[in-house]
Amino acid sequence: MKSPEIHPEEQEALFYQSIVENLPGNILVNVVNDVNDKQSFVNLWTNKRGLDFIGYSQKEISEIGFEFFLRVVHPDDIQVLMQTISRIQTDPKKSFGGLIRVRSKEGDYHWMMWSVTVMEFKNGVPWKMLIANLDVSEMVDSENQISILLKENLRLKNQLRTCLLTRRETEILKLISQGMTDKEIGECLHISAKTVKTHRNNLHRKLHQKNTASLVHFAFETGLV
Question: Per-residue b/e over 199-212, b at no fewer than 16 CB within 10 Å?
Answer without folding.
Answer: bbebbeeebebeee
